[in-house]
Amino acid sequence: MTFEQLGLKEELLKAVSNKGYTEATPIQEESIPAILKGRDLLGGAQTGTGKTAAFALPILNNLSEKERLTKNPRALILTPTRELAAQVGESFRNYGKHLNLNSAIIFGGVKINPQISTLKNGVDILVATPGRLLDHINQKTVKLNSIEVFVLDEADRMLDMGFIKDINKIIALLPKERQNLLFSATYGTEIRELAHGLLKNPKSVEVTKRNSAAEKVTQIVHKIDKNSKKDLLKYIIEKENLYQVLVFVKTKHGANRLSKFLDKSGIPSAAIHGDKSQGARTKALKDFKCGDLQALIATDVAARGLHLEDLSHVINYDLPQVAEDYVHRIGRTGRAGKSGIAISLVSNDEISQLKKIEKMLKNNIDIVAVKGFKPPKDENGASNKKKKVPDPFQYNPKIHKKRKY
Questions:
Q1: Domain extents for the chain?
Q2: What are 348-361's pLDDT values in tens digits?
Q3: Same CATH fold assignment for domains 3-206 and 217-367
Q4: Which residues have CB under 8 Å from 210's CB, separation 6+?
Q5: DSSP states of 201-241
Q6: CATH number of 217-367
């Protein structure tokens, strides 16, 4: 279905055309008509399916048809991370550039005064993370009494990050009469309870199976000794000539260490995680997108906020602790109908995590041997590969005396 057939305004069709889009994706085709009619919506879709445009376009359409009577925001989009807030805010600006509407993005990690100035000038659309939004509410620099449509984006990640109390505080400040849109890639008990309390007679749109990986992403597991992981990562990047690869790790310190190792190995890289300043995170993303960085090392803070249409590879250096996060990580590749490859480097202590991921996916991931890779030797000339240690509880005639019973 084309965007012209969805009933959008000419100004929006022009913006969509400028972005090079002609055919609506399944979630856009299902969601846009319902949102235009003012219905609540429960959307289930993986990243890379065109989800942001599915709610941004109809919200812009509906707001532009009503006279603005207040400086307070009329649409509120709540996101779990700064990166996702920036991405969603950029989408609203791109799609709405031919309309007389303005938007603002507010999140933590940056100075609050410029945000206050923007809000004083008045905004139609507010994209925010929960914590910083509550800061503004407490300082009385923003009011939510004029909200006409409320969007909870990546709701599952919100709950994973412990935002449920903040979300409930924000919802309590919204007008009772409003349109509600909830999007989530995975569904658990908490999500169902949240949706039940938030949505009124919603249209349910589900374009991918729940807790499933994108169909066009090839998934591979390489079993490797934990001490040889960094060398295998370097080998894969060099052998496959990967000039843009996103690598997920478990900890902030691990991200820093791995980035330094790759830099010393001649692979330009940067780490992004929660301890990095917003300026450093923004610069790293910008450098990665424009090709100045070959590898971006990230904790799960980036799993929902990166918009990279042409990213070919995602590598799980460490498996995530929460199985559902695996879906979001590998969803950074294989976007907008394109194919992608997700590689997981799995050590013996991660086998149980791998089994949980496979149980969630209801499918086994192919285990593939890496041809040509040999673990490097340490300074003493010994291989990094762990030596076999005799089991002290197993009888060995060479080292044990024969027992008499």
A1: 3-206, 217-367
A2: 999 999 999 999 88
A3: yes
A4: 44, 186, 187
A5: SPEEEE-S-TT---TTEEEEEEE--GGGHHHHHHHHHHHTT
A6: 3.40.50.300
- Please tell me which of 13-27, 95-109, 303-317 the model is most confident about, judged by mean pLDDT: 95-109
Task: Give the mean model confidence (pLDDT) for residues 110-133.
Answer: 95
Range 297-313 average pLDDT: 74
User: For residue range 169-180, what is the model confidence (pLDDT) as tens digits?
Assistant: 999 999 999 999
d(CA 305, CA 329): 10
Distance CA 297, CA 244 (A): 11
pLDDT of residue 286: 84
For CA atoms 72, 76, 82, 85, give the dihedral sign.
negative
Q: Which CATH class is domain 3-206?
A: alpha beta
Q: Count other Cβ atoms within 10 Å, centred on residue 144.
A: 20
User: For the purposes of burial, counting CB atoms within 10 Å of the CB of 398, is it exposed (0-12), middle (13-18) or buried (19 or more)?
Assistant: exposed
In this structure, are residues 166 and 185 in contact, taking their beta carbons and an 8 Å threshold? no
Name residue, tokens 């994209």.
127
Q: Rounded CA gap, 276 and 160, in Å?
A: 21
Report the C-alpha gap between 295 and 260 in whole angstroms: 11
**Token couple for 52:** 């942001």
- Predicted confidence (pLDDT) per residue in 358-380, tens digit: 998 888 999 998 888 888 765 44
Q: CA gyration radius for the chain?
A: 24
Which H or E run contains 315?
strand 313-316
Q: Is the dihedral of CA 64, 70, 71, 75 positive or negative?
A: negative
Torsion angle, alpha carbons of 347, 350, 351, 354, to 10: -110
